Amino acid sequence: MPRCxxxxxxxxxxxxxxxxxxxxxxxxxxxxxxxxxxxIRVEDxxxxxxxxxxxxxGSVIEIAQIVDIRTGKPPKDAKIIEIFKQVGETKDPxxxxxFQIITADSFTQxxxxxxxxxxxxxxxxxxxxxxxxxxxxxxxxxxxxxxxxKMHKRILLSCKDDKFxxxxxxxxxxxxxxxxxxxxxxxxxxxxxxxxxxxLPKDKFTFEAFYKFxxxxxxxxxxxEKVFNDIKGTxxxxxxxxxxxxxxNKYQRDPRLNEILFPHHNKDGTKKLIQLYEFDKSxxxxxxxxxxxxxxxxxxxxxxxxxxxxxxxxxxxxxxLSHYFINSSHNTYLTGDQFxxxxxxxxxxxxxxxxxxxxxxxxxxxxxxxxxxxxxFTLCSSIQFKDVIEAINETAFKAxxxxxxxxxxxHCTPRQQQKMADYCIQIFKEKxxxxxLDEPKAQLKPGCMLPSPEMLKIQDSRKEQExxxxxxxxxxxxxxxxxxxxxxxxxxxxxxxRG
Length: 499
Description:
Helices cover 33% and strands 15% of the residues. The chain has helices spanning 6-9, 17-20, 78-85, 120-134, 144-158, 167-174, 179-188, 207-218, 222-232, 241-252, 267-277, 281-286, 291-298, 346-353, 385-395, 414-428, 476-482, and strands at 23-28, 37-42, 48-53, 58-62, 66-71, 98-106, 109-116, 164-166, 199-201, 358-364, 372-373, 383-384, 404-410, 460-465. A seven-stranded antiparallel beta sheet has the order 4-3-2-1-7-6-5, with helices on both faces. Strands 12-11-10-13-14 form a five-stranded mixed beta sheet. A two-stranded antiparallel ribbon has the order 8-9. Helix 7 packs across helix 8 and helix 11 (267-277) crosses helix 13. The longest helix has 15 residues, at 120-134.
């Protein structure tokens, strides 16, 4: 079936070879004392991670839903720990061999999959390469046709039999309440059951066959047929090359685009599109689009609503920080409403992993001289300030190397402010900018521009809101000793540091 190799076009690196190979590991759950040996790998199209245990129980993890992969969290059960100490490279600490794959349907709903690699080296290599694959921008910008391919791949991976696909299982996964419709669509797509009436031969269940079945299930695309018929007119059953060029320029191209950087579609480029997406080879040669080819193009990566070439950082990052829009979060700690919502450390990780570059910490005095984060004078729960700083330190630059701004709304007494400052210095270490930059044009003082994102790359920035009647800010006494770093008009303090 015609397919655009757009991953090569946008420079997506090839999948690491070792990820495609089955790797023996152990899988464990916190609510179970079992830790079976399993095999795990990334399937060839990189839509899923699949794993299978010794008793052939397995499942798939959708790569687009993986938000993080974390190392260093061993099981709580002492029996499982003892088992782990006796397998693999026993000299390697268990903490360096354990990792979690975290998936999320939303910021507040996560699922954790726990694995143990047989060596620390295998663990690090698997985790690093899989995380890079999962967080590539292309995974969240797939075309409609890619989603159909993903559906097909999921059906194949969920089938335990090597030779047959159960029609019963297919009905459950596609449309459990439409049994007759599924069976009829299979017949129209040429997918006939074997002698076993409730099974399909797996080797016949190709993507091309599945796509025909998929279209029969939809019952056609009347909205696309109307567009196609309006363009082609009544005299023919295909689009001519000129009609396709006109359609691309009039309806598919944004007229606000610069004509030099984004020129209009021409006949040569349009003919290449037709040759790539048209099914009928005779039509390909003369540059004509049938309805099937036209539909294939509209579902392809060449018709994405976004320009995938502009999804990576493509603009200059050398301007002052204040020249950019920043992905920001308000009341970051809350998973619910501002009156009785639950506060969470995990939500800070999720925000940072999604690319957020400015997060808020509402700080209040806590018990035992430990500052806490909560929404004051409400029924919202609280979390420890230290736990949040540790989570930020672990996650701040996993998704992007550009500077992070921490916005403190500070309600703490001087004693607990000092504790906050100590935690920031101890935990962030060299990531925290606590001395002026060497660049003379980017000093944080009146008359100077703010540093650029490029200057602060792989760094933390910290901004604190100062409000009348509140106590001194954390590290206030140290600030005078280090010199003046904040603008007298802006009254914000930025702290960054190279990591």
